[in-house]
Design brief:
Elements: E1 2-9, E2 24-26, E3 33-36, E4 41-47, E5 54-60, E6 67-72, E7 85-88, E8 96-98, E9 101-105, E10 109-117, H1 142-147, E11 151-155, E12 158-162, H2 168-184, H3 189-193, E13 200-201, H4 204-213, H5 217-221, E14 226-234, E15 240-247, H6 258-262, E16 267-268, E17 270-271, E18 277-278, E19 280-290
Parallel strand pairs: 1-19, 2-12
Antiparallel strand pairs: 3-4, 4-5, 5-6, 6-10, 7-8, 7-11, 9-10, 11-12, 13-16, 14-15, 14-19, 17-18
């Protein structure tokens, strides 16, 4: 059960229109690699060869119908942060307009970083993507994964395509990994999968405003931006049992106050298939972005 929040500073950022261009097409160099890390599931693959090697990663921090996506390599050296970037996963798909971050990704060089991408929607709209209070457990859709045969990014006349092939098996592997994360946190995946509803955050609007308003001052003055993941364990009585913040991007001064705010959160608890309240997960992505 997750939501996406965004904090916005009052600075304008211009977007660059994407122009049609013949894509740089990169073939896979090896198989998918799935890393069962302590706090996330990381699915990676390499494309191209030698100095033209490119990196693709899907990251999930809990079960969700989307994933954080990072791509990196020399093909992205002209991509600019927060500039319009068109994304698509197949020839028949209409490109989605997105505004990702850019940065350096290890030895792979210039990278493009998405807080969340869905193969059917691109970047989910901020504050509209929550599954809280809905039945079942949202996960990646392997049917959509089967239709997703490449990842193509286009920005400012440069187009780069990573030829992944169908990603249904990769999505299924990520789904299995995130269910294992629930087990690691002492939660019951089966109760989540068959739940009548997830936890409902009753005072969400008031606390979200507080989180959004508190862009850390030192980070804002330095123009520091980043993506955080917040995981909240909600007890069977609706109280906040624990809150964890994980930085999905490297930052120096950017520390989110969200967990302090969440101590005041009030939830209606999740209910299982029989209607019994149970200990469950509420999670969200928080994007600190200068505009």
């Amino acid at each position: 059960m997750h939501r996406t929040l965004a904090t916005l500073a009052a600075l304008a950022t211009a977007t660059t229109p994407t122009l049609a261009a013949d894509p740089v097409v990169l073939q896979p160099n090896g198989s998918w690699n799935l890393d069962y890390a302590d706090e996330k599931c990381l699915l990676t693959r390499l494309f191209g060869e030698g100095k033209d090697t490119h990196f693709l990663a899907f990251q999930q921090y809990w079960p969700a119908p989307e994933a954080g996506v990072t791509v990196a390599g020399p093909g992205f050296d002209r991509f600019r942060s927060l500039a319009r970037t068109d994304v698509r996963f197949s020839e028949t798909q209409t490109p989605f307009a997105t505004t990702p971050f850019t940065g350096t990704v290890g030895s792979y060089g210039p990278g493009v970083i998405f807080s969340n991408l869905r193969p059917d929607r691109g970047e989910p709209e901020q504050n509209v993507t929550g599954e809280t209070g809905k039945p079942g457990l949202p996960q990646l859709d392997p049917t959509l994964g089967k239709q997703a045969v490449f990842l193509e990014l286009a920005q400012g006349g440069r187009t780069v395509r990573l030829e992944t092939g169908p990603m249904d098996a990769a999505f299924a592997a990520l789904n299995a990994c995130t269910l294992d994360l629930l087990r690691d946190w002492g939660l019951d995946p089966e109760r989540h999968l068959t739940a009548q509803n997830g936890p409902r955050w009753r005072n969400e609007e008031a606390l979200t405003r507080r989180i959004v308003a508190n862009y850390p001052r030192d980070a804002r003055m330095q123009g520091e931006q980043g993506i955080m993941r917040m995981r909240v364990i909600v007890a069977a009585d609706g109280s906040v049992e624990s809150c964890t913040i994980i930085s999905a991007t490297k930052t120096e001064r950017l520390e989110s106050p969200a967990c302090e705010v969440m101590q005041r959160a009030q939830f209606d608890p999740a209910r299982d298939a029989n209607g019994t309240p149970f200990r469950s997960l509420y999670a969200t992505s928080i994007t600190y972005r200068m505009r």
